[in-house]
Amino acid sequence: MPLRESPEALGDSYSLAKRCFLNLERRFQKQPKLKEMYSDFIHENTNPSNLKQFVYNRVNEIHELTDKSTWHHISTEINPADIASRGVSPSKLQDLELWWSGPPFLMKPKTEWPSAPIENVELPELKVYSCCVSAEHSFEFDRFSKFQRMIRVVGYILRFIHNCKTKKDSRLSGDLSNDEIDRSTQTLIKTCHQDSFPNEVQSLKNNKKIHHKSRILSLNPYLDEHDLIRVGGRIQNSICEYSKKHPILLCVRHNFTKLLFQKEHVRHKHCGPELLLSIIRDQYWPIGGRNLARSTFRKCIVCVRMQSNLIQPMMGNLPPPRVTLTYPFLATGVDFGGPFSIVDRKGRGCKISKCWLSLFVCLSTKALTLEVGSSLSTEAFLMCLRRFISRRGKPHDIYCDNGTNFVGANNELGRMLQASQSSVSAAAHDEGIKFHFSPAYSPHWRGLNEAGIRSAKLLMKRVIGNANLTFEELTTLFTQIEAILNSRPLTPLTSDPSDVTPLTPGHFLIGRPLTALPEPPILTNYPNRYQKLEQLKRHFWDRFHREYLSELQQRTKWREQRRTLKEGDLVVIKDDNLPPMRWRLGRVKKLYPGADGITRVADFTTSRGVIQRALGRVCLLPAINPEDESLGNQGSQGGEPVHAHGT
What we know:
This protein has helices at 7-10, 12-27, 33-45, 53-65, 81-86, 90-93, 97-101, 147-165, 178-196, 198-205, 242-245, 255-267, 273-280, 289-299, 301-307, 320-323, 378-392, 412-430, 447-464, 471-485, 505-509, 529-548, and strands at 221-223, 229-231, 248-251, 284-287, 331-343, 352-362, 368-373, 397-400, 434-437, 469-470, 570-573, 584-593, 599-606, 609-614, 618-620. By secondary structure, the protein is α/β, with parallel strands linked by helices.
């Protein structure tokens, strides 16, 4: 048999044993049964490479010195060597036939020797292979996105373990009971505590004090009968329930707590952060729970859509036509307002029809021109444009909406301008006029036009009321309102009586406000009358630069740049004619940065194709399972319908 001691420990005994083995080899050439059996056992049952190093060397040496065919296996019952190794009393030894005569089969021919199969036995000399497995988490919480599913999965796992340990008659089946749900929840909370508060759990189990720098020290924690960490607190004498006085501690950075907040938020009809936190604290005490409640509310898809927090980039710089010294109406904005009722004649039996207000505003001086449009046809709009050109001169650039931002996509005016946009642009091209269309549903891109419409309609409603006017009466009223609006001061007024007349748009049209009292005629002939008029005109423009332009420096709103979009972001596109839960989903395809590097327009891919919208009409949806950096440092404080937390 292989030696279990090293050659150094055996000393000369190793060499002596080797020589004895060779002598036995020569002596047992006539009866090699024992050698053959042991050889078969070594070769057939043991791979030498699996043996320990010392035994491996001895086995290889035996293989080199002997032949496999000379070794045979002998069972323990007929092996006389076992008598000496195991020991026997002398009284029994003298009558022991096996010891004195050997196995009976040795007296028979070799062909009749037993050939019993060799059983697989485990040798103590085999190598021991150890494997060390390291696991950061005993349970993979991140694999679940719903709290109830996680609880039920663990519940069925615990039932399987219970059924494996009990008899068939006592095994559980069917739906999970309330006790199994409670046991599953407690098991997960224990695992959560081991992941979040390992040092605190160990200290509490050993009845030791918690480290003085622990974040839960101020809550006076303790372990209950289920080994759950609860808040000791200071309200033990209150009449509240036990779970309210001693809630279970949770860490907000653990996925178990996040799923719990999501479940309670949806179960209580998407309640707000404060209500959600108060509901959670009836049974649990999440450390930094207020921030997690806010984060859960912000990441809820339904709440984001209902709140409609639209993206609003910082207010852009004024375009060149607003701050450039040019002739009035060289750069003009166009917009429509109405409708207004108009009658074909006075008296009974008159026919009432609709008409619209067509507004032309000078972008540099804010001067207005109001025209009456009898219909929404392309010809009627072009007639208004020709009347404006005949009165104020031909503009170089016209800025207007694209026809879908007045009332909505179903508005008649929107359909008219959408259908006639190409024909209007072609007619303007023949006149040498360049049209500039703003993105759809973006009235804030033409704020000057919208402000003029608002002012004109406000005066119209106060004067007309519910009356129906004829075309002549309405045209006269439009002209009077135009004069009033062109006499508004461009700069703020002061109470100083020495101040000069405030600058108005009328100064750039006729040299004075249109509603001012007429001056007496000049009877004296001035040889330098032309120079006088040019000097007066230059005086108006100097005041324009000195008084008016300085008032345009400040940004009255949208003062800072917030989070902008990037390609691939998922958004909801606002539609004034639909509820928020029916707004279309879109994904950012292309961005269009402005001259200042800020993006205010983008292309979005929707179920109906690619559309272009201003960023003020879209709402960014939260990413799926984003990392909330605000939860990192916490103290021990207190178009298409979609579904929230559907992943």
